[in-house]
Amino acid sequence: MDKIAAISKRCRIFCTLLYGVVLIGAVGMWVFMTPELALMFGADVKQVIITPATKILGVAITVIPLSVILYGLYLLINLFKNYEKGQVFTLLNAIILRRIGLLSYIWVICEVIYSTLLVLVLTFQNPPGEKILQITLLPSSIIPLVFGSIIISISWVLVEAQKVAEDHALIP
């Protein structure tokens, strides 16, 4: 049990650091956004004009996937915190795992919305006829759906195991 607590503490610290890095990185990305950087981040367009309005809108649309990532890290931090305390097979942890699984479904939806809005924001300053609305759904979007389904299944098993353990505890 000590090994689980030690590894969980490391994972919790890593997730906490990652929380800060993701938050600072997402906002910083738009502060230093250039047309070349926009093309690197997947904007599949010919011409990009970056203005202060573009950067403000960029930060606004980045909140969509950022909120999902930050909430997922928050859930992981709480999960590892519970493991550190020795609370491994609890109903609360099963609920946290279920939420993480459901979050992966939401992530896929947010990814489609974000990529669509990203191209729209990056090209809205372009002259008429060069503005682009592009909806992208990549085959790699299936991976979060698969992992989310696996995590939800594991949480379901944990909930059922918790019920069985409670039933056995009632038998004298």
TrEMBL record:
<dbReference type="Pfam" id="PF11188">
    <property type="entry name" value="DUF2975"/>
</dbReference>
<protein>
    <submittedName>
        <fullName>DUF2975 domain-containing protein</fullName>
    </submittedName>
</protein>
<keyword id="KW-0812">Transmembrane</keyword>
<feature type="transmembrane region" description="Helical">
    <location>
        <begin position="100"/>
        <end position="122"/>
    </location>
</feature>
<feature type="transmembrane region" description="Helical">
    <location>
        <begin position="142"/>
        <end position="159"/>
    </location>
</feature>
<keyword id="KW-0472">Membrane</keyword>
<feature type="transmembrane region" description="Helical">
    <location>
        <begin position="53"/>
        <end position="80"/>
    </location>
</feature>
<dbReference type="InterPro" id="IPR021354">
    <property type="entry name" value="DUF2975"/>
</dbReference>
<keyword id="KW-1133">Transmembrane helix</keyword>
<feature type="transmembrane region" description="Helical">
    <location>
        <begin position="12"/>
        <end position="33"/>
    </location>
</feature>
